[in-house]
Amino acid sequence: MSAEATNPVSEAGATGPDAPGRRRGRPRIDLRRLGRAALLGATAGPAVRDRLPDAIGHVAEAHRAHHPDADLAVLRRAYVLAESSHRGQFRKSGEPYITHPLAVTLILAELGAETTTLTASLLHDTVEDTEVTLEQVRREFGDEVAYLVDGVTKLEKVDYGAAAEPETFRKMLVATGNDVRVMSIKLADRLHNMRTLGVMRPEKQARIARVTRDVLIPLAERLGVQALKTELEDLVFAILHPEEYEATRAVIAGNPGAADALAAIAEQVSAVLREADIGAEVLVRPRHFVSVHRVRLKRGELRGSDFGRLLVLVAEDADCYAVLGELHTCFTPVISEFKDFIAAPKFNLYQSLHTAVAAPDGAVAEVLIRTHRMHKVAEAGVVALGNPYSGQETAPGECVEDGERADPTRPGWLSRLLDWQQSAPDPDTFWTSLRADLAQDQEITVFRTDGGAPGAISLPAGATCVDAAYAQHGEAAHGCLGARVNGRLAPLGTVLQDGDTVQLLLAQDAGSGPSPEWLDHARTPAARIAITGWLQAHPEAAKAPAAAPRPPASVTADRRSGARLRVELPGPDTVTPPAVRPAGCCTPVPPDEITGFVVRGGTVTVHRTGCASVDAMKRLGRAPVTVHWGDTAACRVTLVAESFGRPRLLADLTEAIAAEGAAVVSATVEPPSEQRVRHTYTLQLADAARLPALMKAMRDVPGVYDVSRARHQAAPDL
């Protein structure tokens, strides 16, 4: 059975939507003919053995279109080994099995894959389904090809049972972490299998389609291989949602003039750009089935221009913005549709300008503006980068130095996935977490404020401070007490935004651990697996009831006077007034710079010079008086400790205060709010010089994240 006979979107070329990955005008390959050519090639005599077999002529043509100087000899050798090892094997559709690796290789060749990838693609099923061994592949084609073939080779069900599928994907993803081309071959393999899925039982079709939807399509999106992703989406759509698929196909078939509507706008755009002397190619890019379905759900009744988008291809990055300026000048722009993915590329390497303009007749057309290089990467993603490990430049700013591998996909989602999968030994946990992780298809970047490496942390959109803590500190995040986001204290459940700065506050107590409520805030598998593991290892923590809010408590102690103050009043002599007291709004202590004001009853209140009340007193016309600290070093000070609630916190704080030789005059503990507690202490110190050490000792108490001098607004004494 040919590929088009079982492809539910085979009519796409007739109705408009893209046939992703296929060059304009190139016919779909007839797998029956390829199968016959493969058999004829196998029986050919010695005279033709040294030339390229006819069966891979299409592969050679597509490969040379992207790589004119490619050496095809290795492809010939790989094809000969693949054909001879698969000889006598047939697919369920009745075609010789060799047609499958040929089709997979052709898909990759059309996307621009380099020779090593195509060689491994031809051999990708030999170790799994034939007598060829991995060592034989390594001996004949080298370590790179052997690694790629091993990466896509499935694990045996006889060894792994029901865990074979999740463990195969785990093996494949780990291999992808070292060489991203492993996943490129797997995606092309799944695309051809989905194209020919019609020979399977309906229930098996649905099972394979669900795995494709939940795992392979998100992976294609993350690797930027849009050409494969869009066709996989349509194939899954046809199997899992046949009624919606048929309705969408009917809508497309019922609007044969949609291409003409877009073509008319494209001609207007071309004229505008020609007049502006901007060299550009303007193409009509029909939407694929799923895209039409989504637009229909969003907008209801569709107009002709809704069935596709305009694609403007230019030579340089600067030309993209020149095109944008002309379009927004000569047409009415739809500002809400503008997005700049050139200045801020997507995490999957995608770059383009998106906008929408209204034509004079009111039709709105979406426009994509990109360079030819951007377009190649947008369609083929990592496949368009060639061999990322060849030591040659593969993309702007991406280069391998000193023999180190520099995979452009590794810094973000793939690194996170490889990290958390190590903590998920159970196949069910891995499989569930993988699907949940891949369902989050947007990324944000937050920045550390402590100067550590890496300075930037990539997280999925919707991630919280809990996720940032585990991404930065691993299991040490069990002791996270809170966070400062953009300089402000924030609860651990705070959802982070792209560009936020984050400072995680960790407890000094190694025995600290997360609470069950953290699972409500965790979005990443790494955080959820780590928290769940800790709670399972500490069941007493998971069962402990939440601490009840405590009412305000007050403690009264020694009321000795504060430090000695001397005031210089206007007059012939300097005298000590009968009443001098530190102001409660700023609680000055030696050696603070101070000033005083005479208030009712002749009492002098003493303020720190930077206190807000000083300005208020001056506005009231009060003249400041000169105040000096006396000989005594004793002082009374009010400190505010900001902390996270936990058992024994009050006891630990008072113990730290006592250890520094300070006496508690009074203490107030406010009720907890969002797991935060404020303690206010009025303390008597025998020596004001001990104040910095006292504040440091209080900050070192686990759970305390800040200690400061009291600065509360108070009405000035009159």
Q: What is the gist of this entry?
A:
By secondary structure, this protein is an alpha+beta fold. It has 28 helices and 21 strands.
Which terms summarize this structure?
5-stranded mixed sheet, 21 strands, 42% helix, 718 residues, alpha+beta, disordered C terminus, disordered N terminus
Structure overview:
By secondary structure, this protein is α+β, with helices and mostly antiparallel strands. Helices cover 42% and strands 16% of the residues. It has 28 helices and 21 strands. The strands form 5 sheets. Strands 1, 2, 3, 4, 5 and 6 form a 6-stranded mixed β-sheet that branches. Strand 5 (353-358) and strand 6 form a beta hairpin. Helix 9 packs antiparallel against helix 11. The longest helix has 21 residues, at 202-222. Residues 1-29, 38-50, 392-409, 544-562, 572-578 and 713-718 have low confidence and may be disordered.
Write the layout of secondary structure elements.
Blueprint: H1 12-15, H2 31-42, H3 57-66, H4 73-86, H5 99-111, H6 115-122, H7 126-129, H8 134-141, H9 143-152, H10 157-160, H11 164-178, H12 181-195, H13 202-222, H14 226-240, H15 242-253, H16 258-275, E1 281-286, H17 289-299, E2 308-314, H18 317-330, E3 332-333, E4 339-340, E5 353-358, E6 364-371, H19 372-380, H20 410-421, H21 427-438, E7 443-448, E8 456-460, H22 465-473, E9 480-485, E10 488-490, E11 501-506, H23 518-521, H24 525-537, H25 539-543, E12 553-556, E13 565-568, E14 580-582, E15 594-598, E16 604-608, H26 612-619, E17 626-629, E18 635-644, H27 649-659, E19 663-669, E20 676-685, H28 691-699, E21 704-709
Parallel strand pairs: 2-6, 7-11, 14-16
Antiparallel strand pairs: 1-2, 3-5, 4-5, 5-6, 7-8, 9-10, 9-11, 12-19, 13-17, 15-16, 18-20, 18-21, 19-20
Helix pairs in contact: 2-5, 3-5, 4-6, 5-6, 5-12, 6-9, 8-9, 9-11, 9-12, 11-20, 12-13, 12-14, 13-14, 14-15, 15-17, 20-24
